[in-house]
Design brief:
With about 375 residues, the protein is α/β, with parallel strands linked by helices. The protein is built from 15 helices and seven strands. Strand 6, helix 8 and strand 7 form a beta-alpha-beta unit. The relative contact order is 0.07. The mean pLDDT is about 90.
Length: about 375
C-alpha cells in the first residue's frame, strides 16, 4: 500500500504547480493585453503568423531538451496564443471604434453577408441589410449608406453592381466579397465613380470568427476606403493578402478550379467503379478516409456555386487541359504496369514538392493522429 503521507505531499506539490501555472497564464494574458494597447495606438496588426510559428518551434525544442512531449507542448502554446489573441482582439476592437460608418450589405441575409454584418456591428458601425425578402431595396440601401458591400451569388453579382453603383454617395465606396475578382472589380469600376475595393474571404462563414482567417483584397480605385477595410480586418485579427484581380483569379484557378475538378473526377471514378463507400471504409487508412471526407464535403455543397466558381474563372480552359494531360499521363503508366516509368514520374513530381514535403509530412501527421483518435 502507498504511504498516504507521501501521496498527500506529492498531491500538494501538484496543486502548487497547477496554481503557479494558472498564475503564469494570467500573467501572460495580462502582458498580451498590454501589447494590444500599444498596437491599438500604432495601428499595428494583431496577427503575425511568422512570429507565432517561431514561438511554437522554440517551445517544442525546449520541451524536447527537457524530456517533455513536444506535441503536448505545442498544443498548450497554440491554445495560449489563441487565448492571447482573443484578449488582444477585445482591446484593439474597442480602440478601433472611432468614426462609425453606415454600411449597406446587399445580400446581408445570406451566410457571408450575415457574417460581415456581425463583424461591422462589433466595431460600432451601422449596417443596412438588403436582400430578397427585405423591404429595403438595393438602390435605396445604397443611397442611405456611406459604402455598399455586395455579397450575393456570383450569378447575380453583375446585375446588383450595375443597380447600386450609380446610387453611391460622393466619397463613398462600392465593395464586394465575390469569389472571383477580375470581372467583378471591372464591373464595379464601370458602374460607379466612387472608390472601389474587391475582397474575397478565403474561408467559410461557418468558422464563426474572422480571427486568423485569410482575406484577399484587390484595390480598385481610391485609398480612403481601402485603408479603412485594411484597418478593420487587421483589428479583427484577419490575415490580408493584397493582390491584383488577375493575380487573385489565377491563384483561384489552382486553389478552386483545379482542386474541385480533381475532386469531382475522384468522386466520379468511385461512382463509375460502383464502390460501396461505407464498405470501403472497413479497409480504409486514415489518408483514404481524409480524402473521402473532403470529397464528400465537396458534394454536400451547392452545385450552382461551384459551377460559377469553376466556369466563371477565365483561366478554366488552361486548368482543364493541364488536368486532362496529367491524368492521362498517370493513367498510361498505370495501365501499362510500367514500374520504372511510375518511379520516374513519382520522383520528378517529388522534386517539384521538395522542401514543402517536410512540412506536409508534419501537418498531415497531426491530422492523421487526430483522425485516428476520432476513428
Amino acid at each position: 500500500m502507498p504511504d498516504e503521507d507521501q501521496l498527500d505531499a506529492l498531491r500538494a506539490r501538484l496543486d502548487g504547480i497547477d496554481a503557479a501555472l494558472t498564475r503564469l497564464i494570467a500573467d501572460r494574458l495580462a502582458v498580451a493585453t498590454e501589447v494590444a494597447e500599444l498596437k491599438s495606438t500604432s495601428g499595428a496588426r494583431l496577427f503575425h503568423r511568422d512570429r507565432e510559428e517561431r514561438i511554437v518551434a522554440a517551445r517544442r525544442e525546449a520541451a524536447e531538451s527537457l524530456g517533455v512531449d513536444p506535441e503536448l507542448t505545442e498544443d498548450i502554446f497554440r491554445r495560449l496564443i489563441l487565448a492571447s489573441h482573443q484578449a488582444q482582439s477585445a482591446v484593439i476592437r474597442d480602440a478601433a471604434v472611432t468614426e462609425t460608418r453606415t454600411i449597406a450589405i446587399i445580400g446581408g441575409a445570406g451566410a457571408m453577408g450575415s457574417f460581415f454584418a456581425r463583424l461591422l456591428r462589433e466595431f460600432g458601425h451601422t449596417v443596412l441589410i438588403s436582400d430578397i425578402n427585405t423591404e429595403l431595396a438595393p438602390e435605396a440601401a445604397a443611397e442611405r449608406a456611406d459604402a455598399v458591400l455586395v455579397s450575393v451569388p456570383i450569378a447575380a453579382t453583375r446585375e446588383i453592381i450595375e443597380r447600386v453603383g450609380p446610387r453611391i454617395r460622393p466619397g463613398g465606396a462600392l465593395m464586394d466579397v465575390t469569389s472571383l475578382k477580375d470581372w467583378p472589380v471591372r464591373a464595379m469600376l464601370d458602374a460607379t465613380a466612387a472608390e472601389v475595393v474587391g475582397a474575397h474571404p478565403l474561408f467559410s462563414p461557418a468558422v464563426g470568427t474572422i480571427h486568423r482567417q485569410v482575406v484577399a483584397i484587390c484595390p480598385g480605385r481610391g485609398e480612403s476606403w481601402l485603408g479603412w477595410l485594411r484597418a478593420l480586418l487587421h483589428s479583427a485579427g484577419a490575415e490580408i493578402v493584397e493582390c491584383s484581380p488577375s493575380e487573385h483569379d489565377r491563384a483561384m484557378a489552382v486553389i478552386q478550379v483545379l482542386r474541385h475538378a480533381a475532386t469531382m473526377a475522384f468522386g466520379r471514378a468511385l461512382r463509375d467503379l460502383g464502390v460501396d463507400i461505407e464498405d470501403s471504409l472497413r479497409f480504409s487508412s486514415p489518408i483514404y478516409r481524409l480524402e473521402l471526407i473532403m470529397t464528400g464535403r465537396l458534394f454536400s455543397q451547392d452545385p450552382e456555386l461551384y459551377a460559377d466558381l469553376g466556369l466563371g474563372n477565365a483561366n478554366r480552359a488552361e486548368i482543364a487541359d493541364t488536368l486532362e494531360r496529367a491524368a492521362a499521363a498517370i493513367a498510361r503508366v498505370v495501365r501499362a504496369g510500367d514500374r520504372e516509368a511510375f518511379i520516374s514520374e513519382f520522383r520528378e513530381i517529388a522534386g517539384y514538392f521538395d522542401v514543402f514535403s517536410a512540412r506536409a509530412m508534419a501537418e498531415s501527421g497531426y491530422l492523421i493522429e487526430k483522425m485516428v483518435e476520432r476513428m
